[in-house]
Amino acid sequence: LRHSGAPGQSGLHCPKQLLGGAGQTEQGGIKASTMAKAESEIATGFKRELLGTEFKDLNREKWMAIIRRALAEVFSTATLMFIGCMGLVGGLSKAPDHFAVAFNFGIAVMAGLITFGHVSGAHMNPGLSLTAMILGKLSLPMWIIYSIFQCIGAVLGYGLLMAITPSDKFVTVPGTTPSVPLCCNFPNPMLSAGQQFWSEFIFSALLSLLACAVWDRRNLDKHDSVTLRFGLGVFAIAYGGVQYSGCSMNPARTFGPAVV
């Protein structure tokens, strides 16, 4: 510390070296620049993951890969709707019980995964595709494509089942008036609107959690029977949840019967 030499003034002045001075300012500037660069890289990386690279520098090979994945979602979702909703047809023989219906949907999911999982992942569900996008496993453009083609597949699968089933048998409860269309989701009227919403929200969250566990890199060495286990997971949720909200857990699965 030194005394000011200016006449009529007094005070204590600290050398720049003690307070950091220009050196600290320069160091702070470098640190701020480094942080700004890191933030920019994070933002760029997030944007790259969100938008993906599928539509960048498009060529025939990329187009074919996109088409393959889209068609795989169409056919896997159609498989889910055709096999799953077929288990609800009760007018051709004995009426299916609750256990059989839930198990049938679990098996339908397993069939879709086995057949098309290696092509597109066989999400068969816009909600699961959204989960994959949040985890960075699917880009925003591909999520839009997946969702559109999943809904198309749901309509096709449900329409095919309708085409091979007698119209008077294509009801959830034969003989009731008015007849409830087959495979349409109707929440339990004994529940309030809030209970219906939150029950479906929880069931969908459980399904997404199941998918997250499958996609976890720590589970990569446990995929030998993942299709069977995932199908049984769907069965477990559906068996208990169907009596609450219908337990769709899948916007495309709800969309198909509602449209057709």
From TrEMBL:
TM stretches of this protein: 70-93, 99-119, 140-164, 197-215, 227-246
Location within or outside the cell: Membrane
A GO molecular-function annotation: channel activity
CC per GO annotation: plasma membrane
Keyword line: Membrane, Transmembrane, Transmembrane helix, Transport
Coiled coil: none
Membrane topology value: Multi-pass membrane protein
InterPro entries for this protein: Aquaporin-like (IPR023271), Aquaporin_transptr (IPR034294), MIP (IPR000425)
Chief location: membrane
Pfam hit, one: MIP
Family from the record: Belongs to the MIP/aquaporin (TC 1.A.8) family.
Protein name: Aquaporin AQPAe.a
Species the sequence originates in: Aceria tosichella (wheat curl mite)
